[in-house]
């Protein structure tokens, strides 16, 4: 790689990295705040917050990486045009591929990173995220002890514990679970204790009652017990403890899922949606890099034209990615949408790749550029007249 190519690659890489880091932190912060109530309610330490934030990074990276690359490539090419660096490069006889090589190298690296993250790192981080939230829910009795009042963990799930006894035992445990549509369940025990068995947390209730009421026929059954074991996974928000979601499963498993898997039997389209997302997201960094190069990779003498090309790049990339989000969500139920999820970014790569390799660049039509220039000049002139009128009116009032 030539010195000028290394120079361009270094500038693009630095700006892409800082854009990726800043946007990732911003999006990750919003996601942490959405889930922070679970940790604060259950009294988790700062380590749990940091672990929660870390597990959210891979899923955020897959989404923001193409846009970070777009910012890095577009800003560097626009800056080089504004500083006449592209003019010098072209005047020195360098071919367009000189600027294209750094763009392709960075875009290919980002695409490989997104592919690896989406298929290997993100499923693992999603499982860790589930484990963090599950562990937070397993500490609910400690919170109930401190509060000494009824606590609603989620709609239809209440808990109260009177006090904590020596040795970690709990006294006066009350649980009310009405999350299912046709039944209500109430547990009461004089004492209990939470023990870890393998990777499970089990609540052992001692000397209590189990009351179940059927809402369909209003029948009530009461069972008195001397000991009763409850899996704490039952107190994870409804529907999460039944099975690992496709987002938490490795790609190899999704390609050949178990016939007994809950989603294989009940919702196979969700597995397909997840696979389509994992195998299509990696194409967007490469597509975005080529679009930015084709519109911004050549020297422009008209600054307004360069700005308008940047706006056109943003419209194409945002439109294609927005359609990708929509089509991937519909891919599980529509073969056409599944095809388009792959076809749209692939078509962008092929079309703009051919344009880039043949040295052709696109720009807005000259008539559009002249019209935009006139509109900008008219708006600027009216703004100046308005400012002059306000200044004149202010001087008149002062006099």
What is this structure's SSE topology?
Layout: H1 3-41, H2 46-82, H3 85-91, H4 97-138, H5 140-147, E1 151-154, E2 157-164, E3 170-177, E4 183-197, E5 200-214, E6 220-231, H6 251-255, H7 262-266, H8 268-280, H9 283-296, H10 303-330, H11 335-357, H12 366-398
Helix pairs in contact: 1-2, 1-4, 2-4, 2-9, 2-10, 4-9, 8-10, 8-11, 9-10, 9-11, 10-11
Instruction: Report the radius of gyration as a whole number of Å.
Output: 30 Å
Fraction of residues in β-strands: 15-25%
Q: Which consecutive residue ranges, at least 5 long each, have pLDDT under 50?
A: 237-242
User: Which structural class do the helices and strands define?
Assistant: alpha+beta
End-to-end distance, in Å?
69 Å
- Gross morphology: elongated
- Describe the strand arrangement of the main beta sheet, using strand numbers: 1-2-3-4-5-6
Total helical segments: 12
Helix content: 55-70%
Biggest beta sheet summary: 6 strands, antiparallel
Q: Care to count the β-strands?
A: 6
Average residue pLDDT: 83
Order of helices and strands: HHHHHEEEEEEHHHHHHH
Q: What report would you give on this structure?
A:
The chain has a 6-stranded antiparallel β-sheet with strand order 1-2-3-4-5-6. The chain has 399 residues and is an alpha+beta fold. The longest helix is centred in the first third of the chain and has 42 residues, at 97-138. The protein is 64% helix and 16% strand. The chain has a domain at 142-235. Helix 2 (46-82) runs antiparallel to helix 4 (97-138) and helix 10 (303-330) packs antiparallel against helix 11 (335-357). It is elongated, with a radius of gyration of 30 Å.
């Amino acid at each position: 790689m030539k010195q000028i190519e290394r120079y361009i690659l270094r500038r693009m890489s630095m700006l892409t990295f800082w854009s990726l880091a800043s946007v990732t932190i911003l999006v990750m912060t919003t996601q942490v705040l959405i889930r922070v109530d679970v940790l604060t309610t259950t009294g988790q330490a700062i380590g749990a917050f940091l672990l929660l934030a870390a597990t959210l990074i891979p899923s955020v990276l897959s989404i923001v990486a193409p846009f970070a690359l777009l910012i890095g490539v577009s800003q560097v090419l626009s800056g080089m045009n504004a500083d006449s660096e592209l003019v010098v490069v072209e005047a020195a006889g360098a071919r367009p591929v000189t600027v294209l090589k750094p763009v392709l190298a960075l875009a290919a690296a980002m695409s490989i990173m997104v592919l690896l993250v989406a298929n290997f790192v993100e499923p693992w981080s999603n499982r860790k995220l589930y484990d963090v939230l599950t562990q937070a829910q397993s500490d609910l009795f400690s919170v109930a002890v401190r509060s000494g009042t009824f606590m609603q963990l989620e709609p239809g799930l209440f808990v109260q514990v009177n006090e904590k006894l020596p040795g970690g035992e709990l006294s006066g445990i009350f649980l009310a679970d009405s999350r299912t549509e046709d039944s209500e369940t109430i547990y009461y025990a004089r004492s209990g204790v939470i023990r870890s068995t393998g990777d499970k947390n089990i609540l052992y209730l001692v000397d209590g009652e189990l009351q179940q009421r059927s809402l369909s026929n209003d029948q009530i059954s009461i069972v008195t017990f001397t000991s009763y074991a409850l899996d704490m996974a039952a107190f994870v928000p409804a529907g999460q403890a039944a099975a690992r979601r496709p987002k938490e499963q490795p790609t190899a498993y999704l390609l050949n899922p178990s016939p007994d898997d809950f989603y294989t039997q009940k919702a196979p389209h969700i597995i397909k949606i997840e696979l389509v997302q994992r195998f299509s997201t990696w194409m967007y960094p490469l597509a975005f890099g080529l679009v930015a190069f084709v519109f911004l990779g050549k020297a422009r003498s008209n600054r307004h034209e360069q700005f308008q090309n940047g706006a056109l790049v943003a419209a194409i990339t945002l439109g294609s990615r927005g359609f990708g989000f929509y089509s991937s969500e519909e891919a599980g139920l529509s073969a056409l949408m599944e095809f388009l999820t792959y076809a749209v970014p692939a078509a962008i790569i092929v079309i703009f790749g051919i344009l880039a390799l043949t040295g052709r660049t696109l720009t807005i039509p000259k008539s559009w550029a002249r019209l935009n220039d006139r509109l900008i000049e008219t708006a600027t002139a009216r703004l100046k007249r308005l400012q002059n009128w306000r200044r004149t009116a202010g001087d008149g009032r002062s006099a």
